[in-house]
Amino acid sequence: MTDQPPTPNTTDATPPRQDKKLNTNAIIAVALILAGLGVLLYPVLATQWNNYQQSRAAEAYSQLEKGVPPEVLNKAWEEAQQYNANLGDIDPGDAWTSSDDESSPAYQRYLKYLSVLNATEAMGRIVLPSIKSDLPIFHGTSDRVLARGVGHLYGTDLPVGAPGELGEDGAIPPAPPEGRLSALSAHTGLQNATLWDNLNQVEKGDPVYVAAAGEKLKYEVRDIEVVTPDKTSLLRRTPNKDLVTLITCTPYGINTHRLIITAERVPMDPQEESVFDGQGTTWQWWMWAILAAAAIIVLLLIRWWWKNFRKQKGEEEPATSGPGDTTES
């Protein structure tokens, strides 16, 4: 008998095209889910990055300040005090609905005060420990300024407090008869930065710290009010009071009113200077909500992948084992 040629092995057929199509669809689905996660997480990442940049700018101000000769800082401080003494009583208007003529000679002169640290463009730094806020203070309240940190409301006193030296026991100098008031503004509800989103959580008695021209001042919250934008009387000096006023829009996302927090200067313990070492990272409820949603999506994606992986592995095992082998005795 002649040997018959071996029959071709039909069990090694190529995988069906349908399986390839399913794999391609799965890859596309996973890619779309990952892209969606990126879009979902972007606001959190962008906000935290901008918060980091603003906090870094505030800390950079203090670091650069340490490298400036004391006589330069003293001169800047004295010039700022003289600016306040010559200011007079004016209505600065609302930080968001009114605009300043930044090209005017008076405004250009204003920009030169407390500008000893040109590298940062900041005139000072403000820290609110109760809401973990640490931001640089810039001249004016233009859109560019308010996107970067806290703006000083032109027409109000520079944030250097009342003139005079501290007493031996740390007593603050008395405010002049006409008083002093520095108004500082920052955004609430900005898409990619926290800024003063949490200012509505500040309570009476909370401390407010300001650093400018080598000096550090402490204020204590005395009054909290919500007013319409045209009510600017709270932005004017109070006789014999050394005040700082914090302003932001409210309610969150609606911005029809102004939240105005007034704080009065109080003695500062030298140990409290540690608040300028940094306030850490601020996490808001919506950030946690987005992170929780992203975590759930990732877990569901892993579960789906694992389920399909086990299913595919289960289908491959019978195909690779082949028909049962029998041995002849």
From TrEMBL:
Transmembrane portions of the chain: 26-45, 285-306
Please identify the protein, giving its name as recorded: Class C sortase
Ordered alphabetically, the record's keywords are: Hydrolase, Membrane, Transmembrane, Transmembrane helix
Taken from the record, one Pfam family name reads Sortase
The answer to whether keyword Lyase applies is no
Q: Which superkingdom is the protein from? A: Bacteria
Output one GO MF annotation: hydrolase activity
Q: Which residues form the active site?
A: 187, 249
Keyword field contains Hydrolase: yes
Recorded hits in InterPro entries, A to Z, give: Sortase, Sortase_C, Sortase_dom-sf
